[in-house]
Amino acid sequence: xxxxxxxxxxxxxxxxPALLRxxxxxxxPRSDPSAAAEAAAAPAxxxxxxxxxxxxxxxxxxxxxxxxAAAPQPPAAAPARGDPSAAPFWQFLEPACEEKPxxxxxxxxxxxxxxxxxxxxxxxxxxxxxxxxxxxxxxxxSIKTRILFMSSQPFTWAEHLKAQEEAQGFAQHCRATxxxxxxxxxxxxxxxxxxxxxxxxxxxxxxxxxxxxxxxPRVGADRRIAGKACPWAQDEALQQALMSDWSxxxxxxxxxxxxxxxxxxxxxxxxxxxxxxxxxxxxSAVPTAAIAPTTRGLREAMRSEGIEFSLPLLEESxxxxxxxxxxxxxxxxxxxxxxxxxxxxxxxPAPSDDDDDGSFSWLEEMGVQDKVKKPDAIxxxxxxxxxxxxxxxxxxxxxxVRGSNTFTLLNFLISCRSLVAVAxxxxxxxxxxxSPVAFRGGTMQTLKARSTSGxxxxxxxxxxxxxxxxxxxxxxxxxxxxxxxxxxxxxGAFRALLSPHEPSAAFxxxxxxxxxxxxxxLPACGLHPKTLDQLSQCxxxxxxxxxxxxxxxxxxxxxx
Length: 560
What we know:
α7 packs antiparallel against α17 (476-489) and α17 (476-489) crosses α18.
């Protein structure tokens, strides 16, 4: 007799339906006997035919053959990161149903510091030889996305700030109040001035501020933004409202810059970034604007608007090649016998591209003017600019605008259609404005900082190493402000691994002529006097950026 049904319980849920039964690994007791026999005999078929019939379609053939040949052996080690050919094919497929994309695991509290430093940079970004110890490191105008500070002294003083200390740090930033710290702080955990200065160094200003969207970096960020909610993508009215607010904020920043109340600010678009600097910074007596990376189309549009600009990195490369060729020419001149013909060949001027757009009367003299197809004006222009087109999207494509042309550039960017993407995840999203000071429509943001501890390998064993990780768009003044705080707190000894935003590294090109040396006072721009002195110096890093910064006995060494 069947048991009485319990109240609130349906007897239909005692056994799974046939649809769920199909997902079982083993056949059910009521399945077909012939199918069960085939399923039982399937594990015994290890031949090539069975392997070919049951091969995983998402694995490469090489891995399948190696597994079939070496079945009793343990699984091989994972392929190296730099060898994509050794990785299985399924690793390159986009996951179809994953909620989150695969990401690198966050370091644990007791993780090895050496592992953190190895994951920070790729093997291709090998720093150059370190510099000699100096009291100050050069200005780095690239935007950093991550900095890892390491020291033998703990960073516990930088975490769990009190509400009063956090509020005091915000007030010091808004009032441009600078704190003078002693050379060494014996008890950083108990030093309120130190903790407030640390909070002050983490503040920056952003527009637009959308909490659910990562607004930096913008170049190559389509994959990060894809899938996020973008209500303005199909709403033209909303796009116009966003661009109207953005234009007001952009104009406000430029007015602050011309009044020397804002030292610099960044405009980060989907295709390029712009750095505006006030007069007196980077060794320039006039306001400057640097754009990188650029394309031939953008440069032609700027020329058509009457904006005068230069390509400093490209001109520097050409001057270096010309100097090396002249040195080679002098070497051949003093070489003795057999150098005469080489000198004559080297002394001949290179064929000019201007001959291409001249008259074709020589074809008429030969009587073949109707048989030979003459190049059109576009082909001639492209041949003239072939060297300029080759530098597109490269650091050498850096464009420098000086003086009153920066105002023309402002109007050009506001009305430029290519400033905002028309398709893709960033469609209709205005560029990101980053500034060290407040401006109209800007939102106060803070960098994310967290301290960790670990053990590092040394000769004879291990030692405790403490680290402080700072994430976010780290502007040039923030890097220098952090070093001013960490020097006294860590007793003049720490090491920093910096991860720059690569497209912004070209901003380290010198924007001023060598003979220009006019100092402009920027007392009310909100920066620390020492930070202002550093940013006023002419950049010396070229198209590279600092990747390793070390302080020892209060003296800096760095690698770029």
